[in-house]
Design goal:
About 17% of the residues have low confidence. By secondary structure, the protein is α+β, with helices and mostly antiparallel strands. The longest helix is centred in the N-terminal third of the chain and has 24 residues. It contains three helices and eight strands; from the N terminus they run αββαββαββββ. It has two domains: 28 residues; 110 residues, TolA/TonB C-terminal domain (2-Layer Sandwich), CATH 3.30.2420.10. The relative contact order is 0.22.
Length: 142
């Protein structure tokens, strides 16, 4: 391949890359899922039955997350999956996002809400203790 053809090939290739990159940035799907490496590999119990507040690790106070205005206006649904620990006082801590839909649009309001939740703490010999590696998914539906 001579130098002229190589130069032409590189010019077309570079322009093609720029166009692809710009298109991807401008049309990036809001449906992208954000996934993070979980800290925990085993979760003792997934919270599913919110009506039984007497069991250890179950929520006794729930706060609904604020729906982002832009998401509500555009009728966008989504979710955020968390891992967290529960203190002996029933407060969530070490909150981490495992997965979130909509390019992370709901992470901030979901995290702010989860911080206000309170849980029935785990007990050992009748005394409340910190527990690790809980998981929950908060859903956003219009």
């Amino acid at each position: 391949m001579n130098l002229k053809n190589l130069s032409l090939f590189l010019a077309v290739f570079i322009c093609g890359c720029q166009t692809t990159s710009e298109n991807r940035d401008n049309s990036s799907s809001i449906n992208d899922i954000v996934k993070n490496e979980p800290r925990c590999t085993v979760f003792p119990r997934k919270i599913e039955n919110f009506s039984d507040t007497t069991q250890e690790g179950f929520p006794i106070k729930r706060v609904s997350p604020k729906y982002p205005k832009s998401a509500a206006r555009n009728k966008i649904n989504g979710y955020v999956k968390f891992e967290f620990d529960i203190s002996s006082e029933g407060k969530p801590f070490n909150i981490g996002v495992i997965e979130s839909s909509q390019s992370g649009l709901f992470i901030k309001p979901a995290t702010e809400a989860l911080k206000k939740w309170r849980f029935n703490p785990y007990k050992e010999n009748g005394l409340p203790i910190d527990s690790i590696c809980q998981s929950i998914q908060l859903d956003f539906k219009v």
